[in-house]
Amino acid sequence: MTNEPGKGTRWLIAAMGTVLMLCLGTVYAWSFFQGLLVREFKDAFGWSNTEVAWIFSLAIFFLGVTAAWGGVQLPKRSPRTMAMAGAALFAVGYAVAAFAFSIKSLVLLYVGYGVIGGIGLGLGYVTPVATVSKWFPDRKGLATGMVVMGFGLGALFMSKVLAPVLLNLTGRNLVTVFLCLSGVFLVLGLCSAAFMRNPPKGWMPKGAKAGACKEGPADAIDIPPRRAIASGRFILLWLVFFFNIVAGISIISFQSPLFQDLWKRVDPSLTAAALAAFGATLVALSSLFNGAGRFLWGTVSDRVGRAQTFRIMLGSEIVVFALLVITRSPWVFAILVCWVLLCYGGGFGTMPSYVLDTFGTRAMAPMYGAVLTAWSAAGLLGPQVVAWLKDHFANRAGVYAFAVSIGFLTLGFALSLALSNSSARRST
Length: 428
What we know:
The chain is mainly α. It is 78% helix and 0% strand.
């Protein structure tokens, strides 16, 4: 059946989904603010790395939990409504954070940026991924990789455009900065979210190859999502996804402070402003790899299989983290971090298609939402491990954190060997 809503409609929806993800993905620039907040509030209010890192951890935790709930609700509700609610809550989270800065309340930051903003992230994240996948049954890896690429590029948007400009214009007034960010995300988020809608029932893209748009492969689990969640396939997917995320998010949450620490040891004469500029540059550069990885590995997985793609990413990351343990060069550190973010993003670019291939189109939203709870768990564990190490082993925190990540990645790689590549084959 061919029922084309309009030439270019699905690409417009994919583009708007990418814009929404770009706004939401600014959460990945948290390390840009982590060091700044600790420096400004540690002496006066005793805010430690661990306490400040909880803001980011809570945001990621509520992102994953809400995405799981949203995945169940999405088939019953309008994608536009869900996406707009997510965009609005994300913007409100920034506004509450601005008020928290004005009264110096760490608890309110947890509630605003962490809880409210995190819920907005979850609703906003799961909706465009699940929606766009329905518009591109013939190009699942490419389309979902494109959309989640926007999330990966959010840190670049924040660290090199929004945050520096607003900090300069406001004299580094965090209250005004976060209020302005709230307004920007409210406008951009709501406008892009308004385009989210499902294709007509029975719709098929023109020119799609026979069999490209089927519900799922022959061995997809044809059981209700509640039972599928308890299946061995889902548990393996969840664990492999978790171990890939926890290693990457440890880097994301503290890449700027760790990079600045390395530069201070190499050149003690560098000023705080120069160190901050180095940190912001790494955040921006690594976000390009985070975004590109989502598109690149998602596309690669269409060719070599989803499970094989995860094995390549996890195996290469073990080597990279081993090199991070011994490197003393900021430039080598930056290159290695970019590879980690390339593979971190690749997990998010590959997983939507893996879930779609394994459980079928009808179960895509609830099952993808459920697998995103791995993001919640990793968001709690990864940043807190690094924060604790920085508070207790300042000079060796990075080395210890990288060693812990090697352990996580090794477990993930071992489990990936049990994944079935046949269930992740191209649906063509």
